[in-house]
Design goal:
Helix content: 25-40%
CATH superfamily of the largest domain: FAD/NAD(P)-binding domain
Shape: globular
Number of strands: 25
CATH topology of the largest domain: FAD/NAD(P)-binding domain
Largest sheet: 5 strands, parallel
Number of helices: 12
Amino acid sequence: MTTRLVVIGGDAAGMSAASQARRRRPADDLAIVAFERGQHVSYSACGIPYLVAGDVASPDDLVARRPADFARMDIDLRLASTVVGIDVDRRSVLVRGPDGEYREPFDQLVIATGGVPARPDVPGALSLGIHGVQTLEDGIRLLGYLDRHAPKRAVVVGGGYIGLEMAEAMLKHGLEVTLVDGAEQPMRTLDPDMGGLIADALRAEGVTLRLGERLEGFASHAGRVTAVHTSGGEIPADLVILGLGTRPGSDLARAAGIDIGQTGGIRTDRRMRTSADGVWAAGDCVETLHLVSQRPVAIALGTHANKQGRAVGINIGGGYATFPGVVGTAVSKLCNTEVARTGLSTAEAAAAGFSSFGVVTESTTRAGYFPGARKIKTKIIAERTTGRLLGAQIVGEEGAAKRIDALAVALWHGMTVEEMTSLDLSYAPPFAPVWDPVLIAARKAAEALGSFS
């Protein structure tokens, strides 16, 4: 008898799960139906700011697979179809599609409902000209608004990764840009000394910073936004971009009685099984384990979503796969300034019960005498008693940020800063000084550790 698999969500996690399951089980053994509320599937959400900036020429360039590709795989993909209810007992989902509501039965279910963008509950929040950038449709609408209305002044609300990327995109369109954040620094996932470097970079690019200001509302005329009101006053605006983060899209699962974790994400085991029999979850809607703090976290990243979806598909397909957790690695840039982090910040380390210390080192991305060498600052956070690496942060110019990967691998394997000093990292003048910035940072941390004994 054919097993029926239903997938809720047509982006990274959901379609990775569907594709992997199909590779392992043919259509006469496993029928797959996938529902996507939008018009696009399997696209790079992380590429949307670069589409808006003009670095990516077309929305089509962000799409990895199209509906016809899934049709050839015997995956029944239904667009503009929103799942509005899950009945675990009746083994069916309630779907609101182009032709009305109907029920779709399932034997196995994958919940890949993604994240829900934070939207401010303040006066004027529904005015025209206020945009989020979560979906590809959002990016296309924003490009259309820029073309139709030719705004001159943009306000970006939120100083995280999306805020940085969208500030750069607006600068590339020639707009005056103001960035508003309730925190005293942008990139609050960094320590203040490193976040301060990002603030300096924003100002150097011409961005006006309004830090430590609370969003209070929006003014509008004829339904279109004209200003942003904060606790620090009014900011004129022809365009507002929201970068306030997301929360796990777990409402459907919660309503179905599926266990939700303390982060608000769906709780799963290492194989991505939920508390309901035959129901799996993956992507931004789930919570996962932070391997350093050993605490649950909800981190919305396409890398995690693809890996989790792949594990789900392998397991449904009859194999065995797990997703062990994350160390919190992320990277972004603002014009010529690159920023990266992995593991715990100093504040996060303290909250997790670690006694930690940090060291900041300065170096260059290439041999200092080689053309194109750029500055790089690296911060290492380590446990005071053992020297175990707990986290790292990098701010620098071209060639800086991807060095975070070496630190993430060291973190994944629980290395101490002393052990890291012997890492056999590559060297040639066009790529690194003889002492790579990672090795310099590890060496300085090891020296600092010795002073505590």
